Amino acid sequence: MRIHNFSKENSILNNFMSEIRSISIQKDRMRFRRNIERIGEILCYEMSKTLSFKKSYLKTPLGEMSLMQPSENFVICSVLRAGLPLHNGVLNYFDNAENAFISAYRHHKSKTEFEIVVEYVASPSIEGKTLILVDPMLATGQSIVSTYEALLSHGTPKNTHIISVLGAKKGVTFAASKFPKNTQLWIAGVDEDLNDKGYIVPGLGDAGDLSFGIKLQH
Ligand code: URA
Fold first, then answer.
1. Closest ligand 1 atom to the C-alpha of 198?
2. Bond prior to 202 in cis (omega within 30° of 0)
3. What is the dihedral of CA 119, 80, 43, 34, to 10 degrees?
4. Per-residue pLDDT at 110 exceeds 70
5. Which residue has the higher pLDDT, 107 or 18?
6. Which class would CATH give 2-51+72-212?
7. How far is CA 73 from the centre of its chain?
8. Which atom of ligand 1 is nearest to the CA of 207?
């Protein structure tokens, strides 16, 4: 897997990352969602530079011209519910992409042990298409891997890109070991640690709760 970690570059992305991490600013739910969306927009803009392009022709009011446009068919897939703001950011730039939604959640066997349960898969065929997997938090990496495996019942993608806000080293390494080698990861930050509950440290907290409010646990 090719990893593009943008925390190593100085860019405006760092402003959005600092706001979603800040214990005071992240309390503004609308701002949190919008910042995640903006991060998705920037990451998929960067990703777009690596796509296949073909020449297309158009008429302006004053003449005719050609320009290069992406030639791939995209399916954007996110995991409910935390993935939704990031999904929106990607969809803002890939206007005509098809979309897939998967429900995956942590089923806790004990306070520190959990398994990922995938229950709902709403997806078009992904056969021969460019799959953009959207997962804001690559903590253990298990949910993105389970999501990918569940999607393979809908075809084999030509290419896979993963768009993620924040990962833990362990989760990124695990995902890299499970995805095909030509998969590319576009990520705004990778932190050192995971705590015993599977949260990224220093991280930002629970992205789903920060976007949509707390939910009752299973
Ligand atoms: N999911 C989150 O929302 N936050 C984490 O730190 C890990 C997984």
1. 7
2. yes
3. 180
4. yes
5. 18
6. alpha beta
7. 18
8. 3
